[in-house]
Structures
1.
Amino acid sequence: MRRLERVLEILFIAVFFLFLVAATFLTYQSRNETYSYFENRMLAAKPQYSREAVLDGSYFSALEKYLSDHAAGRIAMSRLKAILDQALGRPVVNDVVVQEDILLPWNDYESLWEEGIAASAEQMSENLASVRDLTESYGGKYYYVAVPCQYVYYEDRYPSYLNNRAEFTRMSMAYLKPALEEKGISYLDMKEVFDQLGHRDEYYSHVDNHYSIFGAYETYRAIIERLRADGEDLPMLEATDFSYVELDPPYLGSRIRKMLDTWHTEERLSILQLNDPIPFTRTDNGVQTSSTVYALPGETDEWVTYNLYMGGDVGNTVIDTGREELPSILVYGDSFTNAAECILYWSFDEMHSIDLRNYSGERSLGEYIQQFQPDYVVCIRDYESLLSQDGNGVGVEMPVA
């Protein structure tokens, strides 16, 4: 009996070892993909072997990340795990908070340092003031627009035992708003606007971090109304000037991607279709492209993503409508500018947009503003990034006279 048990133990170890060898072999023989579509991220690259990398341990660390990212059957096993986690009723799956009709981002529990938040708010206001000063140096006007991200808009949808970051949101705004007011920066808070409009569910996605085209239109409208209140006679798209068209493919939002498409949604994306379209030309990163603001799905596409709007996060876009009697605008920010850009261009002669996370032009933000001197410079930032110094949280240096 003991001999049989011993044989079975050896057999189990041998099978397990063969499994590891086979999995490693298949991983190395598999296609060397660089991007995970469902996870919406770049995969680790195969490390380059060198004696120095082995000695300092960096080679083995990089190899571990590579094997983890490229393991044979990794997506299938991850999808199975997501299905099992949902069947077991776990509230958080793949860093997504799963509620009955909504997917929200998991927020780590955090200890808030009030002095640090206050200092970040002061630094951010100084950064924005430098952009404002540069814009006003040639007669332009600067505006800062804050828009809720999904966890802010739906903070009441979190279970009480999870972190909805409500205190961080409150504390950030408590310090940033006075700092902006002290420096005289024109400021528009879309959370307040959405609340005044009834905090409607249709303004934000249930499966993604962004607002919908309906929320983007209200953001556009609020911006134009603010500019009009400051004396600019701008045309504005009214509800009678367009219609919303819902697309057929389901919306593969960022949360569903993280769930590896194991969560069903009825949500669809819509576009704003003009009754009387205006002709325009468009360049992306200096290269002329097709004159459209929507990357419409093809007939065989199973899903549509947020890249529908402006084709995704383009570093620099210029739309020229050829109406020289109208002013120009530069809008910069993160991905929340995309859906708004699909509408903003209609009210201006030229619309420039910059996403500094992807912008690789020869000119800095300040140099770009100084060269093109747009009549309006508008920064659109989501609440999660209001105090971030990365990407679009930069300031500019004033040009030397």
2.
Amino acid sequence: MFKTLLVSMLVSVVSVPLAVAAPKEPAHAAAKADIVDTAVANGHFKVLAQALTAAGLVDTLKGTGPFTVFAPTDEAFAKLPKGAVDALLKDKKKLTAVLTYHVVAGKVMAADVVKLKTAKTVNGATVAIVVKGKDVTVNDAKVTATDIEASNGVIHVIDTVLMPQ
């Protein structure tokens, strides 16, 4: 029932232009929504939310955490080859591996991310973090917005879907 409700919410959600800009409230302000609800309300993560539902990871990312999510936007998913998203949505095992490759245990704010060379993801693999001037990449994905706080962690927006090897 929750999955059906979430999918119907995704279809009717109104876009809130927060994904490509820094949060308007101070980083220390208490966030009330969890990572999933924050992403859904944002409006730029409809495919990600659909994928989380298909993989059965919604309850996990609504849990206490804390989690750091490198969240690909809908535009990032659109960059995948034609049919790739549909194929992933039908392959729960592969979808789960891809999605958990975007999550790091703990709350890692941008100021801490830039000090790292790598980060171990929840799926057990490691992502490379490269800082060049003001640009930060996670593997080949550019970080486009940071420190979107949620009650159980933080979201950093990326422009490319990370694919585990």
3.
Amino acid sequence: MSVFHWIFLIGFTTCFIACLYHFIHTLFLTMPRQYAKARGKVLPAVVYSFTKAMSPSRKESAYLHLPTYFSGLAYHLGTFMSFFLVFLFFFNYHPSWPWSAIFSGILAISALAGLSILIKRILKKDLRQLSNPDDYISNLLVTLLQGFVAFTLLKHSLVPALLVYASAVMLYIPVGKLKHVVYFFSSRIYLAVFFGRRGVWPVKEDKP
């Protein structure tokens, strides 16, 4: 392996161990003891938590901000795609044409979605007052990663630089806002256990 591969491997290993610690700590070491007898099942609630409960109609106010909701959805899907492609590059695999062009186009759209979210945070006073430097740094790091991967798909000589940049992003994940990639999963499972045991989730649809 080249020095760039080793840098990426160090960044990934550090990030994985730190995120695994946070996941175990938040999900298993802080879960309160359940004294009441369960009235429902947890597994269907977990499925519901990651599917229907994520729709804008099930969220408190997401249905009032659909453009932002779908921009965030595209942005996060682009993030997962970016890391997936980075791992392919790490193993010296490059998507063939026209897949490279298609993936590059998708990431360009997701990066623009992330940029629109950043601009909205800067321009809207209420969001600006709730924000801190980490909110801007995290957005910029991930948006640039998506753009970097999009260019690398079309110009493979950028792979070494991309591996170094991706490792820097992964090192930032456990210490910044990007750590919510861990808390997302642990919190959805926590909610599923809480509401599933009480028979609240999955929500029973009202019959007409």
4.
Amino acid sequence: MFRFVGLLLLLGIPFGAVHAEPFLAGKAETVITPPLALKTSLGGYGERMSQPATGIHDDLRAKALVFVQGDKKFALVTADALGFPPPFKEEIVKKIGDPSWTVENIMLLPSHSHTSFDMSEINPKNEMGIPQLGIFNLSLYTVLSIRFSTLIQDAERDLAPITIGTESAFLKDWVRNRRDGEEVTDQVLTVTRIDDEEGNPFAVFTNFAAHPTFMSANDMMFSGGWPGHLQRTVEALIGDEVECLFSNGAEGDQSPIARRRSGNSSWERAERYGRELGIEVYRLWKEIETQPVEKFEYSYEKLELPTRTWHPDFMATGGAEYGLREDLMDLLIDQMVPEESACGFLRLNDLLIIGIPGEMTAEIGKKLRDQVAEKTGVKHPIIGGLANEWISYILSPEQYNGGGGYEASVSFYGPQLGPTVMAAALKGAEKLE
């Protein structure tokens, strides 16, 4: 034995490397477009009044990557969805029925499409019965929870060794800050390339911060919006049955800037934006060199939220849009605004996904990324926006108290929510340095 160890050291091979568990990954995808017979309403705009979608412009999809090393495993799931209510992931775990899967080793990352199913429609705690807010649909809740649970199980079935690499680039003039008087924008595009052990393309994970809001309340067909077009463009350019996953970032105040010559049609503007951004992803992907996975860690940081309340401006903005009155707010807060949440984290070599359970503004998102990079040394920390569940918009105290506007009014925990979430995120991220 000692001769064997001596030989390894002579060859420059660490003894522990011989016994290291292989790092494996599996992938799967599924269509999550609700059957039109379920009369599913579209989320994102209260003025739609829970009218059912009239058709399918392009299918909604969910995609999963499952990573396994020894007794550790993690599921990264992205979806063409507006967001998820707090009970939804727990229902997915319940339907999987495998004790090795918990809420702590699954991360759900919706694209925030405003032409996908309404969050409130898959929230069993929603007993409000308000059309603008969305009405709970048990059939839809059941169908989607089954599809997501099956998706994770499918991704785990066929595992293979992979290599990984991540790079970031700055993109100018793709987003603007939609809040009056604020100019901070997040122009960072981050792309993670995943290849099989022979160097063939396996999957691409990309992160960018911008609202999918080219379509208005008058557009009533299901669509993944520009993130859906981005993913299909990348998959077409690379080929080889590669799977492209998309995660939105700190997009709370970030709006997309329409590309030139994209026409007056909202559908055309969304498609052109997604296709051209997909080309940028492809360009960056081609430059990435992959390496074996030497750092695979994840964590889950519980988050005790500040006292639930509503902003003084709420009735004039979000309240008006969603048909709420002051006498209904206590019921809303009690039923649909959680008292606690969590931040989830996944590290794969130079990539660290910081899962934030809401819509963080770009200003505090950038501060959080910078602080995580400084404290952990991770080269590419990113914000996984609306991770696992939607709790609120997340602003700095100054933005909450001074700027007002729609984002502040739809923030249900007062001015200290931003600092509270940032503290928990830093604490969780530091565990993975």
